[in-house]
């Protein structure tokens, strides 16, 4: 009698188990170790993170929408608003291109200050697009959402990620970042910027971290930081933790000047040139220990 021998499924091939609540820790570890492996293979040492709304169109898209609204009697007010906001897409694109050209000119074999976005459309697309136009590697830390979030076509393929856990995505934003640029955005942009700002303000992040809020009119109306200082909920000195600007030139100079200074050798035999810029990928900490 020939009976087919039963073959047990290996634990790491058991899809039912791997997708179960019991295996959640394995999925979390996978979202730490798999990105780390790719960053190591491609010699990505650190990043410049660009955040902003997924809903801000490029200038060409906004101009098409305006022409269509005029031709078909559409919502001109909305089309005008989107056309006005498209300047932030173009600014993010230009700034990312210039930062990529600058980072590629730095000496060494490691890839420094790689543009990193949330991987989706809008400002995120603009950042990846600008870096791609400078022929530089760029990163997209995408997240699975029921709407809006789809990977844009400008991300370097080997550096395109799709996270399930928001906190693991945030970890990779924070850990590799050496500069932050927040363009006009919604709840997600506010959440991400405020979290990093809090970590810097409380010195949980102690590495050099130039931060830019791009779009003075938008941010001035959305968040009244001066009022927070006036009411005593933050220190007046905390207003100096970030730059507010409408100028690509100013943002570029602000970021590159501070990162270039941090790259210079520090005084003292125990110091190394990169000491102010944080640690390597291992161990997994957010600040210099």
Structure description:
The protein has 289 residues and is an alpha/beta fold. It has a domain at 44-60 and 88-261: 3-Layer(aba) Sandwich (Rossmann fold), CATH 3.40.50. It contains ten helices and seven strands. It has helices spanning 15-18, 24-41, 59-72, 76-104, 123-133, 166-176, 187-201, 216-222, 225-230, 248-263, and strands spanning 47-51, 114-117, 138-143, 160-163, 177-182, 211-214, 243-245. A seven-stranded parallel β-sheet has the order 4-3-2-1-5-6-7, with helices on both faces. Helix 5 (123-133) links the parallel strand 2 and strand 3. Helix 3 (59-72) runs antiparallel to helix 4 (76-104), helix 4 (76-104) runs parallel beside helix 5 (123-133) and helix 4 (76-104) runs parallel beside helix 10. Residues 279-289 have low confidence and may be disordered.
CATH class of the domain at 44-60 and 88-261: Alpha Beta
Structural class: alpha/beta
Helix content: 40-55%
Biggest sheet strand order reads 4-3-2-1-5-6-7
The whole-number mean of residue pLDDT values reads: 91
Shape: globular
Task: Give the C-alpha Rg.
Answer: 22 Å
Number of helices: 10
N-to-C CA distance: 67 Å
Low-confidence stretches: 279-289
CATH-defined fold name of the domain at 44-60 and 88-261: Rossmann fold
- SSE string, helix = H, strand = E? HHEHHEHEEHEHEHHEH
Strand content: 5-15%
Largest sheet: 7 strands, parallel
